[in-house]
Amino acid sequence: MNNYDIKDPTLAEEGKLRIDWAGREMPVIKLIKQRFAKEKPLKGVRISACLHVTTETANLALALKEGGADLVLCASNPLSTQDDVTAALVDYGIPVNAIKGEDNKTYYQHIITALEHKPQLTMDDGADLVSTLHKEYVELCHNVIGGTEETTTGVIRLRNMARKGKLSYPIIAVNDAQTKYLFDNRYGTGQSTIDGITRATNILWAGRKVVVCGYGWCGKGIAKRAQGLGAQAIITEVNPISALEAAMDGYRVMPLSDACRIGEVFITATGDASVIDKAHMLQMKDGAIIANSGHFNVEINIPALESLAKSKRRVRPFVDEYTLSDGRHIYLLGEGRLINLAAAEGHPASVMDMSFTNQALCVEYLVKMKGKLKPDVYPVPEEIDKEVGRLKLASMNITIDSLTEEQKEYLQSWESGT
Length: 418
Ligand SMILES: NC(=O)c1ccc[n+]([C@@H]2O[C@H](COP(=O)([O-])OP(=O)(O)OC[C@H]3O[C@@H](n4cnc5c(N)ncnc54)[C@H](O)[C@@H]3O)[C@@H](O)[C@H]2O)c1
Fold this sequence. Notes:
This protein is an alpha/beta fold and 418 residues long. It contains 17 helices and 15 strands. It has helices spanning 12-23, 27-39, 55-66, 83-91, 104-115, 128-136, 152-163, 178-201, 217-228, 240-248, 256-262, 278-283, 302-308, 339-342, 349-368, 382-395, 405-411; strands at 46-50, 70-74, 96-97, 121-124, 146-149, 171-173, 209-213, 232-236, 252-253, 265-268, 288-292, 309-316, 319-324, 329-333, 377-379. The relative contact order is 0.13. The site of nicotinamide-adenine-dinucleotide has 29 residues, from helix 7, helix 8, helix 9 and helix 14.
């Protein structure tokens, strides 16, 4: 095996221990792995996967390999890779092209190496692999049976491609499964974003004024966890319904042009660009901390911050101090990249158990449906979403009620009222 590029192969044992540790929290993917080992539903299928290379992803990758897949992996973000995990996976016979902190050129070179695998299936998180395939390797598209997409931003990009007639094969929006966004985006991003900022800064959250930009699934989780630690969360939004939800969930809601003067910590989770812009930075308090948990490092206008700064220095790992010409300091965390993966370990394994079971089952589904789906973005089949929920509940030893015959009939009728 020579089609890999990682930081340090000697980290393999450390990586294996951590992969096993995460695996203890992933009982559902373990079940799927056992079934895949018997049935080999992905036998010989070439998969190129562009995902955050973490211990949880490793458990998914091992399940796919057990199912017979011929898999290569690259990173979906230059700063989210865990180098011990890459070493362990290579040792397990899965080629990985990813190094934490790689520059943009290397990041895309690694995507290209993954594409040179001539995938029959693509797995993406943010749609960089799929867009590179369609822009630079379009001749390889005819090999591809289908793909999956893990995150909100990727799904938005793919829907734009489909609308413009540019998407050449079917892709399942794993992000949009209820067993994904309701748990991963909300509880996973909520907890791990606070974890990343805490690890980077060691700040006390209690009493802190925290501005959360975006009250979607990630923003809801982040605000709730910050509030739970005693912070005063302020929400900024552009969608009136989400803003209303935030207000009725008990948060202060205001435009960022007001919040920028009050906030002490700012966290973006919008999937949008230049949310925190120059005008806001000019109004921030001395010592303001800014971090992003959205997919790309465009939510904070970093070039604007660079242009305002008269000097910049790294004061702790993942903390860059920008000194503005009036002497104020602004602290940018994790170079504006998703802070939960840059400065912490990403989502806890227990929640990725559901997201990645969706991934594994959707990959299996795409192989079964080969040639039957036209190029478009598809939802996760409801049976898969429900099955993931059922298996996760069972793994948590939670049982629930089921409908009686009378209730089933009632819920399908219209005749009876008061
Ligand atoms: N860090 C992670 O591990 C992680 C995990 C899941 C998703 N994500 C990413 O986080 C981002 C948000 O995902 P989501 O699932 O919460 O999306 P979402 O669509 O549920 O929510 C985004 C919210 O941001 C709001 N918004 C858009 N532009 C805004 C602006 N300029 N100011 C204020 N609010 C604005 C929207 O109205 C929406 O309510 C995406 O980029 C997604 O890919 C990151």
